[in-house]
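Hi Q.,

Before the meeting this afternoon, I wanted you to have the adenosine-5'-triphosphate prediction in hand. No need to reply - just skim if you have a minute. The sequence and ligand are here:
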Amino acid sequence: MEEERTGARLRPIGPSSSQPQKPYTEMGSPPTGNTFAIVNQKGGVGKTTTAVNLSAALASLGRIILLVDLDPQGNSTSGVGISKTGLRMSVYDVLIGGDPIDHVIQRTATAGLDLVPSDVRLAGAEVELTATIARENRLKAALRTARNHYDVVIIDCPPSLGLLTINALTAADACLIPVQCEYYALEGLSSLVTTIDLVRRHLNTGLEVSGVLLTMADPRTKLSDQVATEVRNHFGSKVYETVVPRSVRLAEAPSYGQPIIAYAPGSRGAAAYLTLAGEFADRIGLPHGSNRGAAVQVPA
Ligand SMILES: Nc1ncnc2c1ncn2[C@@H]1O[C@H](COP(=O)(O)OP(=O)(O)OP(=O)(O)O)[C@@H](O)[C@H]1O
Ligand SMILES: [Mg+2]
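Predicted structure with the ligand bound:
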């Protein structure tokens, strides 16, 4: 069984001093710029795990990906191996300071994956944005040119429906909603759908719900099946066929600052996110023929 507890081996995330080379904004690649917000105001449903691992899996399929960490917790930032404490600039400087996003984008150790990092200062941004002109459009404006350098931009949202999430929904072409396979899985989704509708009506007419992803499913329990059926009855074909299983490896990987395809390439979690990446790419018509290999990491 691949799911062994290896807590004793956990080590702190290392410094980001060894981040390699130039970001893809400076390298000119054929882009599509499809932008997706990973959103659910409920905490701990797998937004960040999905943002990091879907991004890395898409990159391993040969796509060029920008991951935007829009959560003050900065879990996507550390999840791809970038130290939150060593940051010179972050998405905060873009949203509040008006700095160009290319000044903030960093290459990660995963080939094909760039990051806009977050830091704790973003916690104050909800309040600071309130007094800002075009406050809902700050991220969209910042990404306008940069997104054209990427095949897909993925935005990891915080667990709230505040101005940061509204910025993500305004910047996005579509949103992906992770839903944890647990009791009350659908609770709170109606206010999320209402928020998405409001953004579509007032700020971003093109916004779609691209998909609903079932996460942390436990095949040994009937509960996961029941929740999956309930969610599929509610959202129909919007629900991805791929279901992400509960996996200790997926929970461990962030402690190593690695996506699952690098940390445990043979695990069920890695297989799930690679399958999801294929399904995701198929749904948006993104070619994904040239698999660079699941665990490709740029040498530091
Ligand atoms: N499939 C999974 N199997 C096991 N653990 C998981 C899985 N997906 C996520 N986790 C763990 O569950 C916790 C919550 O996941 P995650 O951080 O991705 O959720 P989130 O929605 O981003 O949370 P928040 O709302 O706080 O930002 C984390 O400790 C993560 O490692
Ligand atoms: Mg998160």
